[in-house]
Amino acid sequence: MQELLQHFVQWLHSMGIHPSGETASALGDVVNQAGVAVGGAVAPVVAKMDMASLMALAAALGWASGFRLYAVVFLTGAMGYAGWIPLPGGLQILEHPAVLAASGFMLLVEFFADKIPWLDSAWDSINSVIRIPGGALLAAGVFGADSAVMGVVAGVLGGSLAATSFATKATTRAAINTSPEPFSNWLASFFEDGLAVLVLWLATTHPLVFGVVLLVMVVASVLLLVVLYKFLKLVTRKLRALFGIAPAASGSA
């Protein structure tokens, strides 16, 4: 902007117009005020996230990746591209149009695959090899560009959160699929869609509140896993009995 102002003053001189120092100073003030007014809309991009926000973002990326990895990649990149949040250096690659296009396409595929009973469990099995590492890499990317140590710590914790949420989702869906009606499956899938958006929104706008919510979700997940594990063991036992399959021997006599 200052260069543009200098070129403008030089052009005035070439036209035989010689503005005084006061005039040039006033013109500079106007330009600066305009720049502030325009820059106000994109100020969040220039601003840096504090430590609480970075930790919340890393935890949110890890947790939500366990059940909606592609949505997390797309939404995070889209928020950075639109200037809604200042993405750390390790995550700015998510803003690239090619990454947005690929993650957006996979988001749509997963959205529909996740609504079909039994196909959702097969989809979970296929994506088990990418969701947990993906959550770890995204969490590590929050700090990795500035601190290798913090990047490793965030990656380990992010991967653990992704594993917990993935196990909860996969086990819950397996239990729901024992019911013939599809409505509970649809409700669970839409709930997960909304939860991924809510988690990212809370982490980027209210990091401390997100920390409390995350703790509640982790505790609830552990309790749910215990209950559903017992339920699935009971269902498996009944299916074995129905088809006359003898249970595996626990040990040799």
Task: Please provide a written account of the structure.
The chain has 253 residues and is mainly α. Helices cover 79% and strands 0% of the residues. It is built from 9 helices and no strands. The protein has helices at residues 2-14, 21-39, 43-46, 51-82, 97-113, 119-144, 148-176, 183-205, 207-242. Mean pLDDT is 80; it is low at 30-47 and 249-253.
Largest sheet: none
Low-confidence stretches: 30-47, 249-253
Mean pLDDT: 80
N to C succession of SSEs: HHHHHHHHH
The total of beta strands comes to 0
The helix-and-strand class reads mainly alpha
Level of helix content?
over 70%
Beta-strand content estimate: under 5%
Cα distance spanning the termini: 86 Å
Shape: globular
Radius of gyration: 26 Å
Helix segment tally: 9
Topology:
Layout: H1 2-14, H2 21-39, H3 43-46, H4 51-82, H5 97-113, H6 119-144, H7 148-176, H8 183-205, H9 207-242
Entry keywords:
single chain, 253 residues, mainly alpha, 0% strand
